[in-house]
Every structure is written in C-alpha cells, then in structure tokens.
Specification:
The complex is a heterodimer of chains A (475) and B (181).
Chain A (H helix, E strand, L loop, with lengths): L3 E6 L8 E7 L5 E8 L5 H4 L8 H6 L6 H16 L5 H33 L10 H7 L1 H22 L8 E2 L2 E2 L5 H28 L4 H6 L6 E6 L11 E5 L5 E6 L4 H4 E4 L8 E4 L9 E2 L2 H7 L6 H11 L12 H20 L19 E8 L2 E9 L5 E7 L1 H4 L1 H15 L7 H12 L17 E6 L5 E7 L1
Chain B lengths: L2 E6 L9 H13 L3 E6 L6 H7 L2 E8 L5 E4 L15 H12 L4 E8 L11 H28 L28 E2 L2
Parallel strand pairs in B: 1-2, 1-3, 3-5
Antiparallel strand pairs in B: 4-5, 4-6
Classes of the chains: A alpha+beta (475), B alpha/beta (181).
Chain lengths: 475, 181
C-alpha cells in the first residue's frame, strides 16, 4: 500500500511556527491530517527554582501577542499561594487590562491575519492576499483595524507602562492604578472604535452567504465548550466559574474548582508535536475533545452583559441551536467579543475606583500550591505552581488555550482537506483553506513575533518512504 | 512640524538595542517637540503615527560600517517574506491606508554583537553618538526651515499645521545616504 502525505510548512499568518501534514490513502483520498507545532519553549522547566514573585514578569515573556494573559494567570496563581483576596481596585484594573488585550489581539487576528482571506478571497493569489493588498482595496477597513489594535495597545501602555511584556500585575494585585487624566483620554477615544466595530460586524454578517462551503467544512462538528462565566452565566474574561457544556448545550460542569483542573482535564501528548492535547477526562482521549476561545465563550454564556454585544449575541445564536458548532464562526464570535470588551472598557473607565492606590495586598507564602485561571484571547488559560515555604518554584504546569483547541484543530484540517483535496490533487486555494481553518482558531504558538503576510510555504506530496512525489512552493 | 522618531530593536540583544539609545538621547534633547515610538519590531499600528507626522526618522541597528541617514521612498514591491516587516513595508502601508505619510528617513546604526545582554560593542557605542548627531542636525535644519516659512511651532509639536510636508518626487529625493565618518 502506498501512503502519500501533503506537508504545509510553515503555516502562515498565525502566531508561531507550525506545520500541517495531510496523509492520503492509495486512492488519493484524505486518510488523516496532523497539525504539528514545531517550536519548543520550556518555560515549565526553566521557571523551576525562580521566586514566585518573579513569575508574572517571567511568564509574560511566553508570548508577545498575549503577554497579559500569562501575566494575569500567573498573578492569580500567586494570589492563591499568598492566600489573599486582592483589593477591589486591583480586580478592576486587571480586568481592564485583560479586556484591552483581547481587543488588540482580536483586532490583530481578524483585521491583519484573517480578513485578507475573507475580503480578497481564499482563491486569490498569495502575493495579493495580505494586509498590503487589503490596504489598497479596503483602506477604510484596514484603517479601522490598525486604529482598533492601537487603541488596545494604548490602554495597556497607559495602564501597565508597556505595550507588551509588562510586569505590572503581581501576586496580591497590581503595582499602580490608572489616573483620572489617562482614563479621560482613553474614554474620549472609545466611541470611534465602538462605531467602527459595529460597522464591521454588520459588514461581516453580509459576507457570510459567500462562505457556505467554508462554514460547512471549517471545523463544524460537535464538541464540548469550556470557559469562564460570571455568577449569572454572563460572559466573563477575568474571573468567575469554569463552565463546561456539551454540544447540545447541556451544562456538564457548572463551576469547576481551578485547583482541581487536572481531575477534569487530562493532557495527552503525541510524538509528532510539542503541543499538548488536553481532553475532558470523564469522556477520555481523544473523544473528550473540547473547544475554548471566542466561540466557546459565546456558546457557554447566557448573555454578554453589555447592550450592543447582547444584541449581537442574539443574532449569533440564530446561526445554529443549541450551540454554534462551526469553527468558521470563531471570526464572528471574535468581533462580538471586541464589541463587548469595548463597552466594558467604557464602563470601567468611568469608575473612579481605578484611581485607588489601594491596589495590592501584601502577604507571605500561605499555601504551597496555586492555580490561576483567566480567559486569554484564544481561550481559557491555566497556570499551576507548586512552591516551597520560601516561595521558590518547585513545579510549573501551563495549560494554554491553543493546546486545548489542539484536538479540534486536528479534526478541522482533516475536515477541510476532505472537502477540498480530491484524488491527491490540491490547489493553492485548497491549501490556503486548510491554513485558514487553523487561522480561525487564532492559535498562539507561544511565539513573540507573527507573520504579517504570506510566508514562504512548501507543500510536499510524499510517499510512505518519504520520497517526494510532488511539491508546491510559495515564494 | 510634527516630528516622529521610531526606534526599533531588542534592547536585550546587545547592539540590536542601539536604536533605543539613539531615540532616548534625542528624546531628552528635544522633549515634547518630537513624538517617540520604541519597540522590538516595527508594527502596523505605527502607520497611523507615520501618517500624522510631517517628518519621521526610523532608527535601526544595521550591518553598515558607519552611522548613516538616508531618505526612504515608498517601495512599489510590498511582498512580505517571513517574519519581516521593514521600514519600507511600514511606509507603504501608511501610504496605502492613509494616502499620505511623513517624509521618512532611515537611520542605520552599525551593529555587530547580537548576543544576550544589554552591553553594547565599543564600535556601536561610538556609532550611537554619530547617529544622534546626524538626526539632531537634521532636526535642527527641519526646525529652521519650519520657522522660516511659518511662525515657529515652539515646544508643542501637536500645534503644527495639519498638512503634510510635500513629498519630493523620486527624482529630487536623495538616494545617497549621508554619513558621519
């Protein structure tokens, strides 16, 4: 029997480095597909021996796109080890930082990385399917994306002192508040972005009819969904209850204790990827597949909690019931989350408690173990630390959002390949759809840089012995 | 005249942080008469800043022998390749999205040692002083030109006229880098 393999290496317009291989059977039909994460970071190992108080700043370096996620999850793990309840102002300040980060990260994903596919077409030539071409064909749209991301970055810079890699959140709270002048300046800019986002959502909905094949094949299958919700089921990004629902909307777990996360979720590993594959233990591996991130958060929430986003959630829910299962709709969910974040940022910026200097609780080590959970732009993030009585880190485990989507991404590329790769033949448009299926999840492979446009991509058709049968290369 | 200084590089990788030192020194000299952006790499959102400015300097470490300053023209080829977003890309993006951009100069600072650490090589330390003087003199000339044609903006750059400095045609712009030797 001759098995053949298509390799997409590297996957472009994602944060990090990865490769996709598609295995074909004798008849040239897709037998299997794999998403290989080829970079290794090692934070869980080299953080051992460091002090607990260093961890937020160290872990912010995990990523240049979502450093705030790691900063906050790490600080929250530290809160638990100190055994403190952080001041109310610190909760609000951290929440504001997380919302701003979601805005800038989602803007990057949607406007810079994915919209060239959506606006210029999956079949457009690669050299004409990037942000430069988009800037020429849709300058107002590109301008909205650039300004929106800049706004999120500016909130973070004002709040944390840096656009990336801040060391502002610490075990016990945050280092400083946000003064009234900065709040007013940021508040004055908010309406522009809410209006622009509302317009983009309206435009996006009008495009959906063009993407019937992609909506059907970009990871549309039943899975569980995981994320944080507020006490009344409201959409939540910083704190709250960990909720897991089934694809039929049934709540399987309503409030998982973060400290017991490993009782609920196993972490499988495969020899062909550095990315772990978490799964829901009661169902087992790999059947315990679940998704996190914007799509999951909208599926598990009963409401968004802000007026404009709530109206959009109603429209989103009309796509499918009881849950929206197509991963193509991560884009739509991402836009609704931007709107919710902007509205919530407005509410927070109106709160004078953000000025409070009482934003940090001091304590020593009161527990030897802590788990911090927050919602990163891409989904639920866990930081789990064990320390000794001096606060020296003994053990670290990080469960990253992208890892939790790993099983779904594997299944997604197989589904797309089966739809668009026929009889062993593939087109550039088919390859881009496979990449775009991954892009819908906005995976962050813990890299500090990202591609702005099309990177060189090599696709090889290999036989079982590794011999090249055919290849396609993008310059 | 609205002046923008962009410094690009990783200050934790030896000479790659040269641009930060150049921009920080100029920021001390010129205060709020210039707008400053610093980062590990160029990012698309700086297009908005480049569109709002009249004159911009993008400072970066480079494999050159002397500090040099050269005029950047918007490239016609905006293909991107890998994790690279060049000053030319930023300029092109600005022109495409905003229909205008500042008169932009690239300031290259010689760099040889990119190992981990904040220490600079002796050659780059010298070159930083040269680069600072190059940009400083250029800023002085820019300010003098501005004051000759209109009342001096003074210390508040945001009060500058809203129109961009007209971009010279490609034929009149200098393609020869000036340098300090």
């Amino acid at each position: 029997m001759t098995e053949r393999r298509i390799v997409i290496d590297p996957v472009t317009r994602i944060e990090g480095h990865a490769r996709i291989s598609i295995h074909l059977d004798e008849a040239g039909n897709v037998a299997d597909a794999r998403f290989h994460v080829t970079e290794f970071r090692g934070f869980e190992k080299f953080c051992e021996g460091r002090l607990l108080w260093e961890m937020p700043a160290l872990c912010a370096r995990v990523c240049g796109i979502c450093p705030i996620s790691h900063l906050l999850a790490s600080a929250k793990a530290g809160d638990m080890i100190l055994g403190v309840q952080i001041p109310p102002a610190a909760v609000k300040l951290r929440r504001l930082a997380n919302l701003a980060q979601i805005v800038q990260s989602h803007a990057l994903s949607f406007f810079h990385l994915s919209s060239p596919d959506l606006l210029l077409g999956f079949d457009a030539a690669p050299e004409g399917r990037n942000i430069f071409a988009l800037a020429t064909s849709h300058p107002e749209f590109a301008r909205s994306g650039i300004r929106l991301r800049a706004f999120g970055q500016d909130v973070l810079a004002q709040l944390t002192g840096k656009r990336i890699h801040a060391s502002w959140a610490v075990p016990g709270g945050v280092r400083w508040p946000l003064n009234a002048q900065a709040r007013a300046e940021l508040r004055s800019r908010l309406d522009e972005h809410i209006a622009a986002t509302t317009n983009v959502i309206a435009a996006y909905k009008s495009w959906l009819d063009r993407f019937g094949d992609e909506i059907r094949s970009f990871g549309d299958f039943p899975t569980c969904f995981l994320g944080l919700v507020g006490p009344d089921g409201t959409w939540e990004a910083y704190d709250g209850d960990l909720r897991l629902i089934a694809s039929d909307g049934t709540i399987l777990e309503s409030a998982i204790d973060p400290r017991a996360y490993d009782e609920y979720f196993g972490e499988a590993t495969e020899s062909w990827s550095y990315l772990k594959s978490p799964y829901y233990r009661p169902v087992g591996y790999p059947e315990g597949i679940y998704r996190v991130g914007p799509l999951a958060r909208l599926n598990i929430a009963s409401r968004m909690g802000t007026p404009l986003a709530d109206a959009e959630l109603t429209a989103f829910r009309s796509l499918a019931s009881p849950t929206v299962s197509g991963s193509f709709h991560y884009h739509y969910a991402r836009l609704i989350e931007i709107l919710a974040c902007l509205e919530s940022i407005g509410q927070l910026l109106d709160d004078s408690e953000l000025d409070s200097a009482d934003c940090r609780a001091d304590a020593g080590v009161n527990r030897l173990e802590g788990v911090g959970v927050s919602e990163a732009p891409r989904g639920t993030l866990f930081h789990h630390y064990r320390v000794n009585s001096d606060g020296v880190i003994q053990q670290v485990n990080l469960v990253i959002a992208t890892g939790q989507n790993n099983l779904a991404m594997q299944r997604t590329i197989a589904q797309i390949a089966r739809e668009f790769v026929r009889d062993g033949a593939f087109t550039d448009g088919a390859l881009n759809r496979i990449e775009a299926g991954i892009r819908a999840y906005d995976p962050c492979l813990s890299c500090s840089t990202h591609a702005v446009g099309a990177m060189p991509m090599q696709v090889e058709l290999l036989d079982a012995s590794g011999g090249s049968l055919d290849h396609l290369r993008r310059a | 005249v609205r002046i923008l200084l962009i410094g690009c590089g990783n200050p934790l990788r030896g000479d790659d942080g040269a641009a930060w030192r150049v921009v920080e020194e100029l920021a001390m000299r010129w205060g709020d008469r210039i707008q400053v952006r610093l980062g590990q790499q160029l990012v698309p959102e700086w297009a908005a800043d480049l569109a709002d400015a009249d004159v911009a300097f993008i400072v970066d470490a480079s494999a050159v022998s002397h500090a040099r300053l050269s005029r950047l023209d918007t490239p016609t080829d905006t293909r991107v390749d890998g994790h690279v977003f060049t000053p030319q890309h930023l300029l092109a993006l600005t022109d495409q999205v905003y229909g205008r951009s500042a008169v932009t100069y690239l300031v290259e600072v010689p760099a040889t040692d990119f190992n981990f650490g904040q220490e600079l090589s002796s050659a780059t330390t010298v070159a930083i002083r040269e680069a600072v003087e190059l940009v400083h003199q250029s800023l002085v000339r820019t300010s003098m030109l501005s004051s000759a044609s209109s009342p001096l903006v003074g210390s508040n750059a945001t009060a500058a006229p809203s129109t961009a400095v007209p971009r010279p045609s490609a034929a009149t712009s200098s393609s020869t880098p000036s340098s300090v030797t």
